[in-house]
Specification:
The complex is a heterodimer of chains A (432) and B (572). In chain A, the strands form six sheets. Chain A has a ten-stranded mixed sheet with strand order 1-2-9-8-10-3-11-20-4-21, sandwiched between helices. Chain A has a four-stranded antiparallel sheet with strand order 14-15-17-16. Chain A has twelve helices and 22 strands. With 432 residues, chain A is an alpha/beta fold. Chain A is globular, with a radius of gyration of 21 Å. In chain A, strand 6 and strand 7 form a beta hairpin. With 572 residues, chain B is α+β, with helices and mostly antiparallel strands. Chain B has two domains: 150 residues, Immunoglobulin-like; 346 residues, Alkaline phosphatase D (PhoD) (Purple Acid Phosphatase, chain A, domain 2, 4-Layer Sandwich). Chain B has nine helices and 27 strands. Classes of the chains: A alpha/beta (432), B alpha+beta (572). At the A-B interface, helix 1 of A face helix 7 of B.
Chain lengths: 432, 572
């Protein structure tokens, strides 16, 4: 989870390393885009008419596409390449999975394992929202090198932060709502439409945050999901606007639209809260020697004591976590190869059971019922619509994951090469 | 060419020259029985004029990507009848070809059988190509068997466009003709047939027919108890032409339910077993069950303990994978289960965590099957129903006939069938929690046992289902081939009295979307990446050897939804 912020009510200021363009959106909204300095007006790649759009419906569950509340997404899926066996990757949080989408590699290579980590250098817990947190090349930068234009339209401030100024054109989320700390989808979509109209990037990476943000705070989430259902309808309408734009402007036939979620969503009861801080502090070996980075459905535990006692400390952390009600499993990160989280994720990863949530340092630290990060929130929608033949209608039983997006985009544009060590994902286009 | 001598002493401890008839209880301390088979030489000589060597058809089963079991039974002499313990050792040649004319034979060999294994032949044909149709046949004593057709499973990484299975259960020989098998055998699009249990019934001749009518009498005449009894009963069923035709059409993937041993079997007994050696006693249950399992191993194209060998174990639960599209976990819900509760009131023991329907080891195995995500669709061959069902809303005068169909509803109105997962709710809670905790999607339980057709969501929480609708998966239940259903017991025409019962159950159980208490027949299951669809076909009269079959209803579950929806037409 991200810690809700205070919101932003004034437009972002320009920095020294970008130019700023203010345009009027279709709805009369003022849109502010920043563009990297030195971007050539006519690069070689500009002649490439193919377009790729990645729309992340943040926190959407795959069954919600079938709920009847999302007819535009259902139609897009029905006409394209559908991967029903798709999932988010550990830790099932927003920042790491968006980073995996754009890097095509797992967190042990990207450097971003969770929304929040304990930064050993700083000696404190922080959100991974710095451009320098991504330690590998994104497909955005690969496209830029080929002279292709790229754009990011990300509704959450920390996503805007972590991807920084990598894209040719960026929209800084605005206005940010005070409680949810994200830009509503109607603004985000307005920006996406404006960016396509104004700059026509070859790749636009869009995060629509309403479904996730409303899901987090919906106190009826376990049963009625009243606010959540309203958000599904609203977000679907925004996606419909985007598809309509592609069709009406003649882009549809040369475009692919990758639609997926970064993770799913699970709702906990008020009494089903796991707080590991206290039991860890009660252990003589662990007291004062453990830091906790709470990520909703996952807790990352860091040994901060003497190096010589690390193994004993990890063993004790595992034991404490596994004996705590509501904990599904706890893993020694360094000895659990399939996690592939890297050292930024700490020493022990604890997952909660479905219907529970972590709340650290104390049981009131995380009051929101909707959470993700744990295995219950693995399933995601994943499909590729669009009129380009690469998105021809099909349904595949192959496993697909967020990490597949970058190689899919690379394959679509025929980019040569791959990250050193290869992609961790694979293209999900017809020939992939 | 390979030659298999399953009766020779070997490193696996197979039985020796004196043809010891192990009762399938190796390691259980149950005594073996030495047969009276004379040590005659192996025969391949032509048989007496008019004698048929292959009287029980051919079969195949448990398809893997590179191997499949093939099966037959030979009757080398007139005296070598099933369960007789008589007849010579016999060489049986087998061939597997890619074409029906056997111009392209890809594998062949010889298998030596004997009375020690009731002259059955079962072997694992290996080094085959994945997702390929094959034809097979046997030759012995100068005669050739009919040709069977089989198909290997897709390779582990393959992405098949679809899988299509016939789905059947509950075939009571005395209750009628196997028209369901006959119609299913006419299809040429089945990759396999799932038999979900009650392949045969253990009852004596004259008991449990089509209502009061015994259409065909069981052999042997008594309730089957001894190994030879079980062998003869298997032989009688395998002599049925409709069943032979279906076996010859596609590989079977089978599990036993209770009647392959005795009614309402559990770990240490069965409702239809009288322990003890006194009057009416049927001996020790474990010994009887070992005989039933031994005969099953001999007569069914199934790998027990993962092999085609006899006597090396009786673990029936197993996985079969079909590329990335589906993995099928076949369950044994009889061998390890705790005793059914049998009290005249709702017994809290149904939710006792110390009671189990799967056994602890099988539960761990099943949870691993679902969590390992080896394929998109997690299909579970499930002998008894897992959907929670309350019968509490039934009219009092219908409790008895419903009880006769579904099993164990006491007269005072216990609202649950405690022979199903409803009688072992902690196991179901544990399994469903596992599914929810790990975000497992696309689990489909395929079930028999209850002599009726059902399609149901599987709610995590029945109380919240009408509002939240969260589900662990879905369940499709096939009807019986012939075994009595509600209209049979009521003695009324189809779609009359049963309608009220169905409506009462549907109203009290909103997660159940379809229920047919009246029909006999079969189902066809079609699996694609987009959905799993079950079509129910119903036969006319089970008393009519030539009865027709018609499509009845279809339901599907779309990928990622864990819900069933009605479909307006069957797959073609």
């Amino acid at each position: 989870m991200c810690v809700p912020g205070t919101g932003r009510t004034t437009p972002p200021a320009a920095s020294d390393r970008r130019t700023v363009l203010k345009v009027a959106g279709a709805g009369g909204l003022a849109l502010t885009f920043s563009t990297a300095l030195g971007t050539p007006t006519y690069a070689a790649g500009n002649r490439d008419r193919r377009r790729a759009y990645v729309l992340v419906v943040d926190g959407c569950r795959p069954d919600e596409i079938d709920s009847g509340l999302m007819p535009n997404l259902a139609a897009l899926r029905a006409g394209g390449r559908h991967h029903p066996r798709a999932h988010s990757l550990p830790v099932m949080e927003t920042v790491p999975n968006h980073v995996m989408m754009m890097t095509g590699v797992r967190p042990d290579r990207s450097g971003v394992p969770a929304n929040d980590i304990y930064d050993r250098g700083l000696g404190e817990t922080r959100t991974m929202d710095r451009p320098s947190d991504i330690r590998t090349t994104t497909v955005i930068e690969r496209l830029n090198r080929q002279g292709l234009r790229t754009g990011t339209v990300l509704s959450k401030d920390y996503l805007y932060g972590v991807f920084g100024e990598r894209a040719t054109h960026r929209w800084e989320p605005f206005p940010l709502l005070p409680v949810t700390d994200h830009a509503p989808d109607v603004f985000t979509m307005e920006a996406a439409l404006g960016m396509v109209e104004e700059f026509d990037p070859h790749l636009v990476f869009v995060n629509l945050g309403d479904v996730d943000r409303v899901g987090h705070s919906d106190l009826t989430g376990g049963t009625l999901q009243a606010l959540r259902r309203a958000a599904l309808v609203s977000t679907d309408l925004q996606v419909g606007r985007f598809v309509d734009m592609l069709r009406s402007t003649g882009r549809w036939g040369r475009s692919i639209v990758v639609v997926l979620a970064d993770h799913s969503m699970d709702w906990s009861r008020p009494d089903r809260v796991v707080s590991l801080t206290s039991p860890l502090a009660e252990d003589p070996l662990l007291a004062g020697n453990v830091a906790v980075a709470q990520n909703g459905g996952a807790d990352l535990l860091y040994w901060t004591g003497p190096e010589g006692q690390r193994d004993r400390g990890v063993a004790r952390m595992l034991a404490v976590a596994r004996s705590t009600p509501g904990v599904l499993s706890a893993h020694d990160r360094a000895r659990t190869s399939w996690l592939r989280l890297g050292p930024n994720a700490g020493d022990v990863i604890a997952y909660c059971r479905a219907g529970w949530r972590f709340s650290d340092p104390d049981v009131v630290s995380n009051p929101i019922p909707g959470n993700h990060g744990h295995p219950a929130t693995r399933p995601i929608p994943f499909f590729i619509g669009g009129g380009h033949p690469a998105a021809a209608k099909a349904v595949s039983s192959e496993l697909a994951a967020t990490v597949d997006v970058a190689p899919t985009i690379a394959s679509f544009f025929g980019l040569r090469g791959a990250p050193r060590g290869g992609w961790d994902g694979r293209s999900r286009l017809a020939a992939g | 060419m390979t030659t298999t001598h399953p009766d020779r002493p070997g490193p696996q401890g197979t039985v020796g020259r004196r043809t010891v008839v192990a009762t399938g209880a190796v390691g259980l301390g149950v005594a073996s029985v030495a047969s009276a088979v004379p040590a005659t030489g192996t025969t391949a000589a032509p048989t007496a004029r008019g004698h048929r060597v292959f009287q029980h058809g051919v079969a195949s089963g448990d398809p893997l990507p590179e191997s499949v079991l093939i099966w037959t039974r030979v009757t080398p002499t007139r005296a070598a009848t099933p369960g007789s313990g008589r007849g010579p050792r016999t060489e049986v040649r087998w061939e597997v070809a890619t074409d029906r004319a056997f111009r392209d034979v890809v594998r062949r060999g010889t298998f030596v059988t004997s009375a020690g294994r009731d002259h059955t032949v079962k072997l694992d044909v290996t080094s085959l190509r994945p997702a390929t149709w094959y034809h097979y046949r046997f030759t012995a004593a100068g005669q050739r068997s009919r040709v069977g057709r089989t198909r290997t499973a897709p390779a582990p990484g393959a992405t098949p466009r679809n899988l299509r299975f016939g789905v059947v259960s509950c075939a009571n020989y005395q209750a009628g003709y196997f028209g369901a098998y006959r119609h299913l055998a006419r299809r040429d699009d089945l990759h396999a047939v799932l038999h979900l249990g009650d392949y045969l019934y253990e009852y004596e001749a004259g008991y449990y027919g089509a209502g009061d009518v015994i259409v065909r009498r069981h052999e042997p005449a008594g309730e089957i108890v001894s190994l030879d009894d079980y062998r003869q009963r298997h032989a009688q069923y395998k002599a049925d032409q409709d069943l032979q035709d279906l076996h010859a059409t596609a590989p079977f993937i089978t599990v036993w339910d209770d009647h392959e041993s005795a009614n309402d079997a559990w770990r240490e007994g069965a409702e239809n077993h009288t322990a003890g050696s006194g009057a009416g006693g049927e001996g020790a249950w474990r010994r009887r069950r070992a005989r039933a399992h031994r005969a099953y191993d001999e007569w069914m194209p199934v790998r027990l303990d993962g092999t085609a060998r006899l006597g090396d174990g009786t673990r029936l639960y197993r996985r079969l994978q079909f590329g990335t599209l589906a993995e099928l976990s076949m369950l044994d819900l009889r061998t390890y289960r705790s005793e059914q509760v049998a009290v005249p009131a709702l017994d809290p023991a149904v939710s006792d965590p110390d009671r189990t329907i799967t056994g602890r080891e099988q539960m761990r195995w099943l949870k691993a099957s679902l969590a390992r995500d080896a394929a998109q669709w997690k299909l579970v061959g499930n002998p008894v129903m897992i959907a929670p069902v309350t019968f509490a809303a039934l009219p009092a005068d219908l409790v008895t006939p419903v009880n006769d169909v579904t099993g164990l509803l006491p007269q005072d109105g216990l609202p649950y069938n405690v022979d199903q997962w409803d009688g072992y709710t902690d196991d179901r809670r544990e399994l469903f929690a596992h599914i929810r905790d790990r975000g497992i999607k696309d689990t489909v339980f395929l079930t028999g046992d209850i002599h009726s057709g059902w399609a149901s969501d599987l709610p995590f929480d029945r109380g919240l289902y009408p509002v939240a609708g969260d589900t662990a998966g879905v369940e499709f239940v096939c009807s019986s081939v012939t075994s009595d259903n509600l209209k049979d017991i009521l003695g009324v025409p189809p779609r009359t009295a049963s309608r009220a019962v169905e409506q009462a159950i549907l109203a009290a159980n909103p997660h159940i979307k379809y229920l047919d208490f009246d029909s006999h027949g079969y189902s066809v299951l079609d699996v694609t990446p987009a959905r799993v669809q079950m079509d129910w076909y119903v036969i006319g009269s089970r008393l009519d050897r030539t009865t027709s079959a018609t499509w009845s209803r279809s339901f599907a579950t779309r990928a990622g939804t864990n819900k069933v929806v009605a479909v307006d037409r069957p797959v073609r």
